[in-house]
Each structure stands twice: as C-alpha cells, then as structure tokens.
Amino acid sequence: MVGNGFLPDVRNCKSILRMLIGGNLVDRAREIYGEMIRVGISPTVVTFNTLLDSFCKEGKVQEALDLLSEMQEKGCMPSDVTYNVLINGLSKVGKMDKAVELVTEMQIHGLAVSSYTYNPLIHGYCIGGNLRNAFKFFNEMISNGVSPTITTYNTLINGLCKKGRLEEARLQFDEILSNNLTPDIISFNSLIYGYCHEKKFEEAFWLFDELRRKHLRPTISTYNTLIYGLCQVGALEEAKRVMHEMVIGGCFPDTLTYTVLINGYCKAGDLIMARKFFDEMVGKGMHPNCYAYTTLIDGEIRLGSLHEAYGLLQKMVQDGFVPDSVAYASLIWGHCQKGELREARELFGEMKRRGLSPSIVTYTVLIHAHAAEGRLYMACRFFFEMIESGLSPDEITYTALINGLCKEGSIDQAYSLFYEMEGKGLSPDKYTYTMLMDENCNMGNWQEAIRLYAEMLGRGLEPDSCTHAVLFKRLRKDHKIHAIRVLVNEVLSSEMVAENFVRSDEWGDSSNHDYRNFLAAILMNKLNLMRVTFRLLASHWFECCSCINI
C-alpha cells in the first residue's frame, strides 16, 4: 500500500496494531509502529497506550519508559490511561519507587487518579510483603476520594493472610460488606488460605460453608487449599473427604490435588495410599510434575525401598524431568542410611556435575554418615567444602561432627567446634551436651560431665533417658541408687559438707573410684543442680529411685 504511494490514516494503523497485539504478534506490531514513524504518520495517545500495554504485559518496563519519553518528545501528552498502564507494569515487576514517582507526575499534570492507579500500587507492595506502604496508599486513596473496589480489599486480605495477620484480614473482609460491596470467591479463598495456614480449620470450614450459602461456587483453589492444610497436620481422612466432596460438586482434582495428597501420605509413612493416588493421577491422563515424583521418591527411600526409588527416578527422566537437588538429597540420604557411603559420594559428585547446588541438609547428611562411621577425614572435608560454598553449618551439622570427634576420642577438637558453634550464635542442644558428657565420663572426668549437665539444665534443655544413661553408665547398680539418692535428698541441703560425699564408710564400697569422683563432682556443682530432682524422677532412672525410701 505504502509502496504504491498510499498512506493509511492513523485510525487504520491503530486497528492494525490492536489486531497484531491481540494475536500475540507483538514484534510485528512494533515493526508497523516503526514504519508509521518512518512514513510520517503521527501516533496518537491511543497508539502509544496500545504499545505501552504490550511492553508492560511482557515485563519490558524499561522499553515502556523509553516509549513514554519518546511520546513526550513528540508532543503527545500522556493520559491517565498511559500512566495507569505504566504504574501497573512497574508494580508487577516490583519497581515500586518508579511507580510512585509516576503517580506524583500524574498528579502534577492534573490527571485524575483512580482505583486503576492505586490498586496496582497496593498489589505491588502486598506482593513484596510491604504492608505498611500498601496501607499508606490505601489511606491516600480514600483521602483523595477514590472508593476502594473489591480488588482493593482482596489484595489487602491476601497480603495480610500471607503474613498471618488474620484478625486484620477479617476486619477488611467485614469492611467489604459495610461498604456495600459483595465478597467474591477470591475474598473467601484468601481468608480460607490464611486460616488453613494457621491451622484454624474450624474458621476455614465456616467460611467454606458461608461462601456456598452465598451461592458462590468453590474453585479448584478453594478445595486444594483445604486439602493442603489438612494434609499438613496429618488429617488425611478429612482431606480425602474434601476431595470426595469436590468431585460430587463437579470440581475435579488436578495435578496439584494429587501431589498434595501424595506428599501427605508419604509424610505419614503410608506408601500404599501415596502410590494409589500417584497411579490414579496417571490413570486419569495427568502428568505428574517434578514435585510429585520427588515426593514419592523420598517416601520410598524413607521406607528403605531404594530399588523402587530408582525406578521412579527413571520414569521421571523418561517424562522429561531433570532430577533436582531434592531428589538427589533423598537418594544420598537413602544410601547413607544403608551405610553405602561410596554410592552416596558418587551421587553427590553427579549432583554437582549437573550444576545443582547441595543444601545444608545434603552436606549435614554426608557429614553425619561419615562421622558416625569414623570417617572423620571425609566428614571434615564435607564440612569445610560446605563453608567454602557459602553455606553456614547449623546446630545439626556441628552436632554431627562433634559426635564423630567424641567417638574417636578427639575431645579437644570436639570442644573447639562446640565453642565455635556458640561463637556463631548457635545453641547446642541436649544431644550435643550428651555426646560431650559421654566422652568425659569415658575419660573419668566426672567434674566436667556434671558441669556440662548443670549448664544444660541452666539453658532450659530437658535431659532424657539417654542423657542419664550416659551420666550413670559406669557406676554399679547400687552406686547408681546411692548417686540418685544424693541428688534427690542431699544436693538440696545447704548443710551438706564435702566429706559426706566422699567418706567410704557412709557410702559403702570405696573401691569404685569413678563413684567417689562422681559424688565429689555433684557437690562442686550443687548450686547449679538445684532443679535436678524432679527431672531425674521423670527420667529413665525412676525405677532405681523407687526402691529408695525418700
């Protein structure tokens, strides 16, 4: 047409651009725009808005901003629609400062702000977790005489629920009604999600019944949220009931529904039901996603079925999925549980060659397995490699390595790690203390063992039967009884003197040197052990105490 000397008018160009963009031929639309400029056709504000919208929908906000500048240079004044399109695009990609700047610019030019201006801003701040700014613009919206819409309230309710601020979310829900608006399915779904996330199922199911009383139809999202929440707390029969109700209501389970149920049953150790749902999903023509495969692989491994796990891994690859770091971590854990450390290391190497980053959990599993087998060189190698990769060991990692060092008698290195752990702000747990106490008892360091026990109690850590077994394991049964009696009756007495603990004629056979040292150590830590009585009576050694007349 242009080649024959005919120029289309701007109206025809706008129609062509809209058709191309509507048909997802955005690149071709931009070519047409370039041709318009080349032949001297001046785009209108509508032409620019059409192109700006296409840029923003693709997330190309910088190109959109460049086009805004070009628009202004050509003397075409942006409209409220222009700014609203840009504010929406910028808010979706989290460029909130620039979006706010455009709101100010819009107002300077005397353009009217509306819900189309504020709703994207509120949504952007809520998605980013900045509820303070979201409410700031909500209040500004009202101050400027702009009425909040159902979208405004839904955005705030969703943001509050994701932060666990359910009371405030419920207030916003009630405000919908007071402003003569009608809650929609999104309003209900957001609140149901919030209550399920906080495990408040009574409120969640009340809302579920309420939305149906208001003649709203539950969506797949409604049902999946309830099923997910129930599976998280192990209420699997109730989750199955909701799924059954879902089908009766004409809403059919999707891949997410089945994946959630598979995960729930795997966590409960019920692989029969997990496999049943997996097979049912495949039988209905659905394709399991990567998470469904990984969940079932992990479930099989937890039951020691490595062969079945590898079979699933093969199916996963055949379906076009690349095993992720979670799948590898599960397989590594499975081999470590069977003592197959060479296979675990091979998988770890393969995982890294595939460009997958091992997590703290993966490293800790390997450190624990090698330390437990006395392979301290390899355990330490994984420990330092973990740090070099930018990961920080947690309490479990340190405890695993401390355990290995204690078993090998490397008590000094174990203490170095213990103090390093504390220096990093990590708190040793009762297992860490029990391991150090065990090695000190083995070495006859009763004073240090009791000091550790007192420190553990001082930190509010509850000793268990394993802790007490370690503390008493080298004493003969009659000495265990006497030792507990001292702890029960005598430690609480401020008049007790040291010789009462160490005089052989009072406490019987003095040939057990460990026994005498143990009692002396108790006295030295007496003030820190004031609370030990009731803890011991609730412990593994209650049967010993029961034969003493206390």
Automatic annotation (TrEMBL):
<feature type="repeat" description="PPR">
    <location>
        <begin position="394"/>
        <end position="428"/>
    </location>
</feature>
<dbReference type="Pfam" id="PF01535">
    <property type="entry name" value="PPR"/>
</dbReference>
<feature type="repeat" description="PPR">
    <location>
        <begin position="219"/>
        <end position="253"/>
    </location>
</feature>
<feature type="repeat" description="PPR">
    <location>
        <begin position="289"/>
        <end position="323"/>
    </location>
</feature>
<keyword id="KW-0677">Repeat</keyword>
<protein>
    <recommendedName>
        <fullName>Pentacotripeptide-repeat region of PRORP domain-containing protein</fullName>
    </recommendedName>
</protein>
<dbReference type="Pfam" id="PF13041">
    <property type="entry name" value="PPR_2"/>
</dbReference>
<feature type="repeat" description="PPR">
    <location>
        <begin position="184"/>
        <end position="218"/>
    </location>
</feature>
<comment type="similarity">
    <text>Belongs to the PPR family. P subfamily.</text>
</comment>
<feature type="repeat" description="PPR">
    <location>
        <begin position="324"/>
        <end position="358"/>
    </location>
</feature>
<dbReference type="InterPro" id="IPR002885">
    <property type="entry name" value="PPR_rpt"/>
</dbReference>
<feature type="repeat" description="PPR">
    <location>
        <begin position="114"/>
        <end position="148"/>
    </location>
</feature>
<feature type="repeat" description="PPR">
    <location>
        <begin position="79"/>
        <end position="113"/>
    </location>
</feature>
<feature type="repeat" description="PPR">
    <location>
        <begin position="9"/>
        <end position="43"/>
    </location>
</feature>
<dbReference type="InterPro" id="IPR011990">
    <property type="entry name" value="TPR-like_helical_dom_sf"/>
</dbReference>
<dbReference type="Pfam" id="PF12854">
    <property type="entry name" value="PPR_1"/>
</dbReference>
<feature type="repeat" description="PPR">
    <location>
        <begin position="149"/>
        <end position="183"/>
    </location>
</feature>
<feature type="repeat" description="PPR">
    <location>
        <begin position="359"/>
        <end position="393"/>
    </location>
</feature>
<feature type="repeat" description="PPR">
    <location>
        <begin position="254"/>
        <end position="288"/>
    </location>
</feature>
<dbReference type="InterPro" id="IPR051114">
    <property type="entry name" value="Mito_RNA_Proc_CCM1"/>
</dbReference>
<feature type="repeat" description="PPR">
    <location>
        <begin position="429"/>
        <end position="463"/>
    </location>
</feature>
<feature type="repeat" description="PPR">
    <location>
        <begin position="44"/>
        <end position="78"/>
    </location>
</feature>
